[in-house]
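Progress report, Aim 2. The chain analyzed during this reporting quarter is listed below.
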Amino acid sequence: MKLSVDLNDLGLPEYKVEELYPLGEMTYYDIEEPVKRSEEGGEPEDSFIYVKEFDCPLCGKKAANPIAKIAKLRPLGTEKDLRTRYKYFEPLKYDVLCCEGCGYAAIQTNFKPLAKPHKLLLDEKIRRPFQPGILKTGVLHFEDAILRYKRAITCSKVRLGKNGEIASLCLRMAWLLRSYSEWVTEESLVQEIKQEEIKYLAAAREGLVLARQKEGSVPGMPDLTVDYLIGILSMKLGYFQDAQKLFMAVIGNGMAAASQKDKARDRLAEVKEMLKNSL
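Predicted structure tokens for the chain:
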């Protein structure tokens, strides 16, 4: 495909999305509002970022990375699967931090001290085979960002990251791909990007389900939000009965806020109609 993003050039193992979780046959239902983006009237992207140095948790060296300026972000709205869209700028591109000293990569919130057993695994499978390239510290193209997410997913798998962590990375990757498709005009490339997005959405769903079953929770995300999100992903991927059960559980949960219950009721009505139309 035209998405020229590959970890092999860096000497790193790459986990294809199909290797993260069994995906099986997928039917996709696009329940989001279509969006096409334009840079017209927007500020230059470099005005939305700055460069910051971080201490690499694996090798200890300084790692300079471009970071989004939170104060400049202007939300346009939140999509059904909880992706937030912003005016003129996509901060998801700048969420992953990378070290060109050793190859380690992680979401900024997870770029923190590592346990010794995890360091040993990463040292063997990431630091030793890593072949440094040129790490951008300025504006990132979407393909640069996709490569960074692939590096973060690989590092998470190598250090035996939990399902919740890997699923969250897959979800962010899916959002990033969707954002990319909104800026692309070539229809064939849009379709290729969309197919990748669907795979990562499916992987996110599988990982979140396993996280709730085996780990109980997902770091940084309330359980009700996780259940609602699994319901949305189930809607998108044709698991209508699963989606109904999850939305009904949110509605019947005494801890759910009124706004959460209202959203779940709206989605429940939608998924019932989708199920009826699919018969």
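Residues 8-217 form one domain. The two ends are 34 Å apart (CA to CA). These observations will guide the mutagenesis work planned for the next reporting period.
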